[in-house]
Amino acid sequence: MASISCLSSFSLSNFSAPLPISICSSSSTFLTSQIPCKPTKRSKPKRHHVSKVTCNSNQNTPTPNPEEERPSYNILGKYRRDVLLGIGGLYGASALSNTNPLAMAAAPILQPDLEHCCITDDVPPKGVIEAQVYCCPPRSSSPSIDFKLPKGTPLRVRPPAQFVTDEYLEKYKLALKRMRELPSDDPRRFPTELDFKVHFSWLFFPFHRWYLYFYERILGSLIDDPTFALPYWNWDNPDGGMVIPLIYRDEDSPLYDPRRNPDITPDTLVDLNYGSGKDPSVEQNLGVMYTSVVSGAKRASLFHGKAFFAGKQPELGGGTVELGPHTALHRWTGDPRQPNKEDMGRFYSAGRDPIFYSHHANVDRMWNIWKTIPTGKRRDFKNRDWLETTFFFYDENKNLVSVKVKDSLDSKKMGYVYQDVDIPWLQKRTKPKRTRKAKHLLDSKVTLLVKRPKQLRSKKDREEQEEVLVIDGIEFDGDDDVKFDVYITDEDVEEIGPENTEFAGSFATLGHSHSNMNMDKKIKTSLTLGITDLLEDLDAENDDSILVTLVPRSENVTITIQSIKIEFEKEE
């Protein structure tokens, strides 16, 4: 069985703040023991407390922890879905549960208990993949320090992977080689196996930004180059970017991963609408980008995803980029020969592939681009619950650092920017498949008539309120890869693609590979798509109803949907 560190530590600020969705990792760090996990006995909670989960040597005999004198209170109780786990250079907090009583007074950050590791069923059993999975990060001997924005440091410029120089490539390979050669108990040795569960919420972008930030700084320190910056996989750009970058294809390079789709050749075009059953094209890819970042994401809630609050039942819902091109590239790159399409095809294993970090660098770049687009209300959330969310990472000096979302909003202030390249999809407004005349009602098995609460909206109304299509109660098995496309049309959707206006967006996610966990594997979430521009382009602004067509793209997968409706979102 794989060995996973048992740890659950919650940090609340001076109000009812959110917590990161549970983060389960399997980093390549040292193993102190291999014992089953079991929650500690509850003790009376105090105003300041930390939830801790320790491990037992067997199902009945607890392992004593004489140093543990602090109150121990499992605030997730029997509804605990996952515990907090160390990710090599990271600590986070778990709060994904069926009932979550976390609306309480502030709790101080106490040093996590990393004394024990335990067996878990959260990853495929040994034998399914050749390497056993460990995730016991080294214990920090010092208290965490608060992050401070860098001052007086050279600005790092992240280059597009297709344009890097030979000199840069040699530095990158050397840095990664040295990282992998670090001792297993060195916190700078980033994990090779990861299972991020910060998806389906507004934590997706800031968490991954911090993750790459520390990864990048550690790489630079290992080659004594403070200007070193990660390359980004420029998969949104047909000028050499819509293929797997050449630097990741050399089998003798530390940047290579053998667990990639063997059908991908140097000339294979990336498929940003992967799973649609259609051959990819540049036009389709540009259409996906325009819909995901421009027309369908004119509000923070559409781009980032749904809010996640402590003390409330989570309403999971990812943003347009997360559920669109981000997941599509994970699935497209993963190896279909592996049981779960490892490495990129599963969250728990994606971080083994060095291309993961370049992929997410481009995802992070989308955040910067999104805020520069003039149309819509493209401003980050002002909600303190989001801004004060806290993560913990080890830095290049082995310090445990406390970071907050509010310090991640401007990459330039963090010390890095992206090298400019053409962005052809910014002005690539999609075109309707046909000139719209009469309506044909429900002549498709998956077409529904959805009533619009408002029509004849003024230009001012359209600017202040984004009309959104809400597909609620999307439920599926967490082990499954799930994808469906959404169209607003009554025509044959097989003749329509992302390059057409009728394409409203996609829902796509990777399976989580949970097996035999004592929990409900069903995931229930939602999809929200901005459709103001789409309806204008279809000349449908005055219609009292629209036809919404859902096209499932996953095989042998059961997906249920509770409701489809139209709402209007106004910036708070």
From TrEMBL:
Cu cation B binds at residues 326, 330, 360. Residues 199-216, 353-364 form the Tyrosinase copper-binding domain. It comes from Glycine soja (Wild soybean). Gene3D superfamilies: Di-copper center containing domain from catechol oxidase. The keyword rRNA processing does not apply. Binds 2 copper ions per subunit. This is Polyphenol oxidase A1, chloroplastic. Disulfide bonds join 117-136. Residues 39-51 have a biased composition (Basic residues).
